[in-house]
Amino acid sequence: xxxxDGSHGYPPDYLGADIRAxxxxxxxxxxDASAVNELQRIARQESRLGIPLLVGRDVIHGFRTILPIPLxxxxxxxxxxxxxxxxxxxxxxxxAGVNWTFAPMLDITRDPRWGRIAESLGEDPYLASxxxxxxxxxxxxxxxxxxxxxxxxxxxxxxxxxxxGGRDYAATSIPEIDLRNVYLPPFQAAVRCGVxxxxxxxxxxxxxxxxxxxxxxxxxxxxxxxxxxxxxxxxDSVCQLCVHGxxxxxxxxxxxxxxxxxxxxxxxxxxxxxxxxxxxxxTLDPCTVDEAxxxxxxxxxxxxxxxxxxxxxxxxxxxxxxxxxxxxRLAAEQSVVLLKNNGPVLPLSIEQLDxxxxxxxxxxxxxEQLGTWVFDGDPGETVTPLCAIESLAGGHLKVRHVPAMVHxxxxxxxxxxxxxxxxxxxxVVLLFLxxxxxxxxxxxxxxDIGLPGDQLELVRQLHSAGKPVVxxxxxxxxxxxxxxxxxxxxxxxxxxxxxxxxxAIAELLFGLRCPSGKLPVTFPRMVGQVPIYYxxxxxxxxxxxxxxxxxxxxxxxxxxxxxxxxxxxxDAGYRPLFPFGFGLSYTQFHYGDIFVRPLEVSPGERITIxxxxxxxxxxxxxxxxxxxxRDVVGSVTRPVRELKxxxxxxxxxxxxxxxxxxxxxxxxxFHGADLRWAAEPGEFRAWIGGDSDAELGVxxxxxxxxxxxxxxx
Length: 713
Ligand code: GLC
Prior knowledge:
Radius of gyration: 26 Å
Number of strands: 26
Structural class: alpha/beta
Bound molecules: alpha-D-glucopyranose
Strand order of the largest sheet: 11-16-15-14-12-13
């Protein structure tokens, strides 16, 4: 029931004794195949029962070959590709002897200040559920017993993405109705698709830390969902119950955690030191311990650790496979979101250009573009945008590179003057901006989500050079780009795109590929709008353009007694900078002929909603067709729209495609005021389009007699 840390030195030297004594059934952060093999040998041959070890590692978005950060992978809206990426990562990690990964992270978040938004699959439960399922299937493969399968871990149950102030580890307070309608669905989807393990969050939920939260770990996870896998605590979070102030000492912490449903303690010693005495004292029912041990043993059998197929670990080959490189490239390509393309200035034509200026701190930063949670990534394998552009340019194009800043937090200096001079003497400026990897990820939260350092000043100065400016932004979160947009002609948002990010970006810039990414999270105009997300409630006084007044437009002469009297900010309005699901292409997609059948559906029946999508442009492209639905009247208020389906389609110029979504009426269900999960009869509205602002709509009805909500009989 104890997982020990093997992060330093030669782990057999200091973990061997605990393994022989049965105080270590799992290790974390041992990725040297020979060390893993020796640890497994000790466990099999020198411990009392010969039980093999779980070997865990955070394989979050790749192992040695790094994929885009999960938020970037979510921007692909491509479950098949996300699954392929996880499969590739599992093959590399398993070669090093790893058999357990602590991914996918399924925390829904609407707060870009939170550093871990980078690891998330975005703001929407439906999208996160579908992509989380894909990651789990990729990691776990066809059979957990396959030699290259990893046990996946859905984390961090639950509500971690709602930390106060976007500050990591802070408290979360979430009404159960929101917990069940927004934050829990991705975890339930994970259980349904067979995830092997779960991890509670560091944070408290409604006053009870998740690690000791019986409601989450036993009532919901075991009793309601029937989860029979292993629950592992987060790093030392059992002992942290004393710090939270719910446990008086480590014995009390161990008792609270194990009785709530935490089976294994990651890198703490509360279980090893106190569970035995708690049982001996009669304080802890031995059956509780037996059940936890049984779940851990069952996982080890499911992973095939007792048979020889998994040992010994062979180690990684000298170079990544071509398949791994191509998976990373395709994932990077489809993760990039085209946010602006005035002109259109993109794609660039190598033949029509003479000189390009490649400027900025992230043009040639092999480590930074890999992003957060990259323990085993090899920056030597990274293809940076500068390398890829120089390779594509060949002898046709002069490429002038000026970093201008030493890193993303850099201050204005002589590099700025050199950058402006280079821009003046070039045909186009390719400006690589954003965040270094360390500025997002665990504990790396920001109160201001603008470009770090003096990057905005660099943008302004380059704008003055009078040449077209294409900004390529790498970051681990949505950034407030309002002021950047005013000074550039085009924006590609690349998240942290991983090993092959530069190749993908260069091919998109020069039109060898067409951008197809869509935002998995809303981009605010400024941080003061947070939380801002598409599936908001309508409120009793929803804003509209006619009623919203901007702070700069208030007439000082008028005898103002009130402004707007609807839900908005005087200095930001109510619209985001870019909505959920948004992303441009080098072509244009038109939607028409929406239909729904039947117009009235009975509970338990299926409804089909569809539309025709046309590539109205001159180049082939991929579009993510999205279906949104609104329950117009509910026993509790319902979001103004919710994603209920999406499909990525490839269309040639002029090609039309009829896209249909089949929904069960269960897809209309939600947890109501009594927390009962049900679809309620009444009017519904549906939209199909290329983002969450889709306007092409249709109405339908779910038959039955709506309960007169709020009216007691
Ligand atoms: C970290 C993270 C968790 C990770 C674990 C092991 O603190 O919260 O997501 O899997 O520790 O590294």
